[in-house]
Amino acid sequence: MENSIIGLPIHRKWTLVAQGENSGIKDKRLLCITGEAEWQEFWKEHTSWLVSAPPALPTVDIDREVVVAIFAGSYSSGGYAVSIEKVEDYEQTVAVTYKVIGKGAETEAMTQPFIMVRLSTGGREVSFNQAA
Residue 1 falls within a domain, yes or no? Predict the structure, then answer.
């Protein structure tokens, strides 16, 4: 939705679900998860790298909110992270602007930086934009 007075998008609030640098998801992905079964399968894939029991599935009211998940792919070192810069409502979409930050070299282990948030979209599609 746009602010009718000046025509600017309205910033939407979101809540962090999970963020880190290790995942069973190795490739770059930009996801909007809208169903309970999809959320459960996704969480299972994300936590598949763990040797011990995975953490419980985070609670999300999937009837009211979606999970937006951004995976930056695999890096040969640590020191990278994914951040959400802003979430804006437009007439047809909710635009999520994100950024991959870091310089690497904190560790020589393979890492897969990611962030997951939950938010309401008002039934609109989610679009992704990578900030410079």
Answer: no
